[in-house]
Amino acid sequence: MYEAGTRGVWSIGEEYLLKELAIEEEIWGEQSWLGPEYAITRFLEANSKIPVVKYVKHWTDSESHFFFMKRIPGESLYNMFYDGITRADLLVLAEEAADYLVELRSFTSDKLEAPGGDPVRDKKFNPQHPPHFWTSDVDKWWAGVEPHIKDKSKKGILKEKYGLCVKPEGPFVLSHGDLNAQNIIVKDNHISGIIDWERGGYLPVWWEWRQLTRVQMSGWGNAVIEALGRRNALPSEEEMTLWKSFYNIFYDAYEDKTGVHRNPKWKTNDREFYWTQPSYPHYRAEEKPWDCEDIAKRNREGIEKIEAEKKAIEDRIKTAEDRAKVAEEKLAENETIVAEFNKLSVEERENLKRRK
């Protein structure tokens, strides 16, 4: 179905999917870290009414983790936007999503973690390479981000505000973290599944709200936020204000190194890397899409194909011209015969008919 970075998803018949996640020992330092998606999905399947994928089997070989699961019936909300979903139907789905989020937030922890205790990767407040995990330890967090802070005078205020946003004592609520339209599966105008929990875990109470503010396609994020508000399930004004204050200072002081310091051996999970290198050699080792020699070869092959098509067209034109010339000659010959025939007298014409 698709390949992205270190992930691949394949359709197995009409009812099942196989998902592969490459082991990143060079990055993670250990092979056991799966990310939170598997743990969250299994937890919700057993403890909630939230519609998630049902895993049939999970196994690991020397290179990858594999997840064999049942396919959720329906299509993504993202696709429905292009099919012309009505505003009324969108609001019904937003209400359903809000109900599921309220149930999701009822599961709490005093630690930033996934169900089962595994760490949750921090892709927002920490450098991407090497990867870091969510932590409520302010000093540990600062040690990870300090090399990337261009204005070191902000150290005190940043640590203070981070500690207020991510309180060591919690509580932390179970969150999805990426509830965009591609991760909502719909059947018969109702949510049949919520997928891709790789950014989820027990996270700060404001995190889901913050992520929804970034989901603006056709007003989906705002519709869910408004539905959460009607359920009194949004973070407090104080929590929102603290987050916004921290966000503004942090990103003003942070040195953006997106796309820099890439190790070509890393098969990273970063989404921007999917966008720039969607055919990473983990899946297509025989292809070298970013190799200059290969690009030149493909360009030559493209030119040769165009030249061959051009020659074929020219040959067809020449053939048509030759046929037209023959037809013109035959027409001229016939016209000559007709002209000669018209010169004959009536008696001569009758004699010709009798000879035949």
Automatic annotation (TrEMBL):
Alphabetic keyword roster: Coiled coil
SUPFAM superfamilies named among the record's database cross-references: Protein kinase-like (PK-like) (SSF56112)
Domain Aminoglycoside phosphotransferase: 36-233
Organism for this UniProt entry: Botryotinia fuckeliana (strain T4) (Noble rot fungus)
Superkingdom of the source species: Eukaryota
Entry-linked Pfam families: APH
Coiled-coil regions listed: 296-337
Descriptive protein name: Aminoglycoside phosphotransferase domain-containing protein
Cytoplasm is among the record's keywords: no
Lineage of the species this protein comes from: Eukaryota, Fungi, Dikarya, Ascomycota, Pezizomycotina
